[in-house]
Amino acid sequence: MDPCHEKSGSTASSANVRNSIEQQNEPRENDDNERPEERAQQHLTTFRLVGVMSGLSFAVFCMALDNTIMATAIPKITDQFHSSQDIGWYGSSYLLTNSCLTISFGKLYTLYPVKWIYLVALALFEIGSLVCGFTPNSVGLIIGRAITGLGSAGLFSGAITVISQSMPLQRRLLCISLIMGLFGVADVAGPLIGGVFTDYLTWRWCFYINLPFGGLTALAIVFLLEAQQPVKQARGVKCLLSHLDLVGLLFLFPAVICLLLVLSWGGADYPWGDRRIIGLIVGFAALMSIFIVVQWWRQDKATIPPRLIKKRDIWGTCIFSFCITGAMMAFTYHLPIWFQSVKGVSATKSGLMSLPTILGMTICTILSAVLVGKIGYYAPFMYAAPVVSVIGAGLLSTLKVDSGPAQWIGYQVPFGIGLGIGLSQPMVVVQTVLEPDDIPLAIAITAFMESLGGSVAISVAQSVFRSQLVKHMALEAPRINAHENSTTGMTTLRDTVPPEMLNGVLRAYNSAITQALYVGVALSSLAIVGALSIRWISVKGKKTEA
């Protein structure tokens, strides 16, 4: 027995014995709607449930907004701080801390009461937002974004963990779908909201908005959520450090950084054969190899325990989450660029033109939750999501300069429907196939893959866009400086480009953007690999082997 958890382990063992006796004495027919292990959990009353869900929704919405809300605010920020050289750091500082610490928060949720760890994550998120909102310079904004990323790493997985501990499995379906729907809507609507703040108030409101909503979340969690004791309990700093797997994290962090730098720089800033790119590739391979060895050596104390990731449902869920979220983020970042550059609309209007994706995703996220609850199986929806989304993604990648509303509205509909069908299912899988003790960490691993998928997709798509823009500008408008135009004049092409060259420039931008969208098309199709590994297990407790 692990000495770190001797007391909690004994308590858990006794509880398991009592639960086993109770299960043997209870009629089997009562197990259809609620599993035995769930009866031991303390479920929230309806009043508390509504309050807690409202608080979690506010936090997740703000956290997801932070992924994309800066997209339309960056030009104004760089104008004020004269910091165009820092553009990459505004996004990467947030994504790096978020990606790398998501799993660590999952560990903390298994060792300490979820309530208090969630409040710590929320406090970090609010402090980071405060720093970003009041910063006088670019360096302060980068630091604030990094702190915000630290907090956001625990908010999403924490919200799903709270839901998993507060209600029966079937009721979780709708709540998880609501959370995932809000997450997706906020991601897609981020540029619209950021554009409105930037155009009519100030870019600083992109961060101020987090403060009141975070306060409401804190009130709901403090007064309405009870602090349930974890099954595992870290006894002392030494035990905590052991379970956080600092050795593994020491290799995972730089490996992720190397990967993102390779994908961002390769083919755009430096040729693939450049010594910097080769060095980063070698560094990533070496660091990741050592990380895998460390995980195998540490087993249950690893950042990603091998016994979890070896389960087909879990590794399949990770692949599916990586791909479907990556596809969403690739389009979320680059479709507004197409609207603003090729169609010449404002930041606010480009967000409105993305509404077909938002509506399709929101409606189908909720509808899929209801249907999963009715039929009991999530596997069919995971099969359908890549098929439907790749149709929409493929159609969107065929957009032309003269494409009208029939095309850019009609093509978004199947893409949004596909995302809505699939986005919430990975979290349902995790809570259906695993024991309660493993759920918080598995949720964090899944959230990590979603975050990493989004980061990788954005990096690759942006690299493709930049390299293809240079190529097509040389063909269509050789007298235009592609690099300068891409950083200073994307949204004002009709004002800055000579009329005789405008059509060529628009064709170049259209080609570069649609080829960047191929990244989303590829990821949408690859999601089927993860979906096909998922077994047919009913959320009602009845299992059917595929």
From TrEMBL:
Database matches in PROSITE patterns: MFS
Domain called Major facilitator superfamily (MFS) profile: residue spans: 52-542
GO cellular component labels: plasma membrane
Region spans: Disordered: 1-38
Keyword Transmembrane helix carried by entry: yes
Topology in membrane: Multi-pass membrane protein
Extent of Polar residues compositional bias: 9-21
Pfam families the UniProt entry points to: MFS_1
Transmembrane stretches, start-end: 49-75, 87-109, 116-136, 142-161, 173-193, 205-225, 246-265, 277-297, 318-339, 351-373, 380-399, 441-465, 516-537
UniProt keyword annotations, A-Z: Membrane, Transmembrane, Transmembrane helix
UniProt subcellular location: Membrane
Signal peptide segment: none
InterPro entries documented for this protein: MFS, MFS_dom, MFS_trans_sf
Highest taxon listed in the record's lineage: Eukaryota
One term of GO molecular function: transmembrane transporter activity
Record family assignment: Belongs to the major facilitator superfamily. TCR/Tet family.
Name recorded for this polypeptide: Putative MFS multidrug transporter
Source organism: Aspergillus nomiae NRRL (strain ATCC 15546 / NRRL 13137 / CBS 260.88 / M93)
